[in-house]
Amino acid sequence: MLPLPTIVHLDADAFFVSCELSLKPELRGTKCAVGGRERGIISSASYEARACGVYTPMPTKLALKVCPDLILLPHTAGIYSKKSREMFDLCETLTPVVQRNSVDEGYLDIGPCGFKTLPEIERRVRALQQRIWDDLQIPTSFGIAANKLVSAIASKARKPRGFTVVPPGEEAAFLAPLKISVIPGVGKKSEERLAASGIRLVSDVLTRSERELKNLFGSGWEEMLRTARGEDDRPVHTDHEDAKSYSVQETFGEDISDLAEIERIAKRMIDELMPAIRGDGKRVKTMTVKVRYPGMENSTAGRSLAEATDLEAPFYPLVQPLLKAAWTQRRPLRLVSVRFSGVEEKGSQLEMFAQTDEKKRRLAAVMDKLNAKGQAGIVRHGHQIQKED
């Protein structure tokens, strides 16, 4: 009996835009994007807008030039983390082995489910894809393969609403005709450098000698060769109910170097994470900011509050100094992430201003509920939530 592919990668399509369109379904099929009009960038664009040349993180002013009829949608605080939690909760109705990589993508290991045939696997995963749409109005793409590497590449092969299965043993054949840029870590500059050496497709790696690969990839040549063959033995790491940290990250379609814009994105991440922390009945004490350069080098900086909290405001002033501390090389960034740790159970608060903070906490809880319903008229850290009729 042939082995079955048991690793599934879920990748939500234009996630931020899809979340907003779940509140504004009348805008489906239009050229729209999530982003700020003033000193802003596009953080997510519909596929109709992408067809006109709008990409992430294009400056909003430029996006409006290339697509004059672009509809700009402001960020709705709270909805992204809510939709993400609900999406992965649905995944856990299929298998308990779910790894939540970020708000919009993750892995499922369906090996423990006991499926006997490939058609059965396809049917069950397609049913999950349909349920995410029916329940949440979030379109998704799925890749199914024998490992994480190939399933992740497969999920992006036919977006949006893609569904790609790579049977075991066909990993190398699936990857061979694809552009070398599908390999994780091969960015635009690396792609250009490799193209100058004649490597444009994944299959080109397999035709090179060991000496040539060493010259091109240095000490990482063997890993690149294994990757080109579609080999990967990383397991799917499950989430634990008692979270030790909360994090979210954003990878930019194009590298970005605007400090003010990066700061705005990081503060939006705080707005996304705190409702989840409050919803779990937790408080956090430490915030860590991570930046990643185009060459995949990471740098981090963190700071702790005197007391754990589940409110956004105490962490806002830490964003700029942490960014400056982490972003030591003033080069454009590929990724930024915010992580909260030092998780504590919510208990009696002894600080001097407990009563004042409790009022803020009750207000925050009300805001979370309104955000979850798509209601508006409220601003948290300058993010206007638009009222829905």
What would your notes on this structure say?
The protein has 389 residues and is of the alpha+beta class. It folds into 4 domains: 16-73, MutS, DNA mismatch repair protein, domain I (3-Layer(aba) Sandwich), CATH 3.40.1170.60; 88-171, 2-Layer Sandwich (Alpha-Beta Plaits), CATH 3.30.70; 173-228, Orthogonal Bundle (DNA polymerase, domain 1), CATH 1.10.150.20; 246-384, DNA polymerase, Y-family, little finger domain (Dna Ligase, domain 1), CATH 3.30.1490. 38% of the residues lie in helices and 21% in strands. It contains 14 helices and 15 strands. It has a 5-stranded mixed sheet with strand order 5-6-1-7-8. Strands 9, 10, 11, 12 and 13 form a 5-stranded antiparallel sheet that branches. Strands 3-2-4 form a 3-stranded mixed sheet. The longest helix is centred in the C-terminal third of the chain and has 21 residues, at 259-279. The protein is globular. The model is unreliable at 348-356 and 374-389 (pLDDT under 50).
Beta-strand residue percentage: 15-25%
Count of helical stretches? 14
CATH third-tier fold name of the largest domain: Dna Ligase, domain 1
In CATH, the homologous superfamily of the largest domain goes by the name DNA polymerase, Y-family, little finger domain
Instruction: Tell me about the largest β-sheet.
Output: 5 strands, mixed
Named at the architecture level, the CATH assignment of the largest domain is 2-Layer Sandwich
Give the SSE order as H and E letters.
EHEEHHEHEEHEHEHHHHHEHEEHEEHEE
Intertermini distance: 56 Å
Overall number of strands: 15
- Bulk shape: globular
The residue fraction in helices comes out at 25-40%
In total, how many domains does the architecture comprise? 4
Strand order across the biggest sheet? 5-6-1-7-8
> Spans of 5+ residues with little confidence (pLDDT < 50)?
348-356, 374-389
Whole-number mean pLDDT: 85
Radius of gyration, Cα only, in angstroms? Answer: 22 Å
Structural class: alpha+beta
